[in-house]
Design a protein that fits this description.
The protein has a domain of 183 residues: 3-Layer(aba) Sandwich (Rossmann fold), CATH 3.40.50. 43% of the residues are buried. The chain is an alpha/beta fold. The model has no long low-confidence stretch (mean pLDDT 95). Helices cover 36% and strands 21% of the residues. Strands 3, 4, 5, 6, 7, 8, 9, 10 and 11 form a nine-stranded mixed sheet that branches. Strands 1-2 form a two-stranded antiparallel sheet. A hairpin with a 4-residue loop joins strand 9 and strand 10. Bound molecules: S-adenosylmethionine. The site of S-adenosylmethionine (SAM) has 18 residues, from helix 4. S-adenosylmethionine binds next to helix 4.
Length: 269
């Protein structure tokens, strides 16, 4: 007889206790506290509040004025605001999200916060991030993939979500994230940067897709150091967890440079 996968609050507890060991009780306690928000104000029509560690993946993307930028999973849009500000009126931002309901919220956030001259440089789309590379490759100077993930910070406060939680969920999300990051790499132009981010606690969803990317497409991807004032280095990136980062996070990110294909004639080397 096939063994049933455990599910629900107890399975959630057991899974994260096994992952984090003696750290889990303090990490859980920190996740249950009110999140620490950062106020974005400069350059916006009105303030926007987002998790204190959410700005780190955007800073790591190192966007400059005039760049062509793609935010593959953009809603509700906090990171898109920062990307639009950094790309400026000479650059452009494509802010994508597959969910139509969340896209409506994204449009509202962009409309209410960005000055008109920047809003004109932002294009909202609704494609599947995992399939983008079938239509466009080598196209953007900078790509942010803020992937859908386990979001334990939300799940732990949502009894309905906890009731149906199963260890199959992080595994499924990690597989989905790999399809998206493999697509995102091809969409980034050679020499450009891709930042992969999640708000997950699970290494399989964080370093996991990056490790697979390097194994499969190492000739096209170089992992760079992920710098931040808080958090802990992981084998491929950095994770900021609320028990040690003053309530900020969870945020994981990795920085990847799209390499010139060694056999490709567009290499300047
Ligand atoms: C972690 S949230 C993004 C948060 C956003 N970057 C921000 O800072 O406000 C992930 C988003 O990915 C979207 N999404 C899920 N699957 C997708 C797919 N296959 N292609 C594009 N977007 C997707 C979800 O609708 C969700 O809005």
């Amino acid at each position: 007889m096939k063994k049933k996968t455990p599910a629900g609050r107890e399975a959630f507890e057991a899974y994260y206790a096994a992952l984090y060991g003696s750290r889990w009780p303090s990490l859980k306690e920190a996740l249950l506290q009110e999140p620490v928000y950062e106020e974005l104000r400069a350059g916006l029509l009105k303030s926007y509040f987002l998790d204190g560690a959410s700005t780190l993946p955007v800073k790591a993307l190192d966007v400059h004025s005039g760049m062509r930028v793609l935010d593959l999973c953009a809603a509700p849009g906090g990171k898109s605001l920062l990307l639009a500000l950094a790309a400026g009126t000479e650059g452009s931002l494509t802010a994508n999200d597959r969910s139509s309901a969340r896209r409506a919220r994204l449009k509202r956030v962009l409309q209410e916060h960005l000055p008109a001259e920047l809003r004109e440089r932002v294009f909202v789309t609704g494609h599947d991030a995992a399939r983008w590379c079938l239509y466009e490759t080598d196209a953007y100077d900078r790509v942010l993939l803020d992937a859908p993930c386990s979001s334990e910070g939300h799940v732990i406060r949502a009894p309905e979500a906890l009731k149906i939680w199963s260890p199959k969920r992080p595994h499924h999300l990690a597989r989905q994230a790999f399809s998206m990051i493999a697509s995102a790499l091809r969409v980034t132009r050679p020499g450009g940067l891709l930042v992969y981010a999640t708000c997950s606690l699970v290494p399989e969803e964080n370093d996991g897709p990056v490790e697979r990317l390097v194994q499969r497409y190492g000739a096209m991807a170089e992992v760079l150091p992920a710098e931040a004032p808080w958090g802990e280095a992981t084998p491929f990136g950095r994770i900021i967890l609320p028990d040690t980062a003053g309530g900020r996070g969870p945020i994981y990110f990795a920085v990847i440079r799209r390499k010139y294909d060694p056999g490709c004639s567009d290499s300047p080397l």
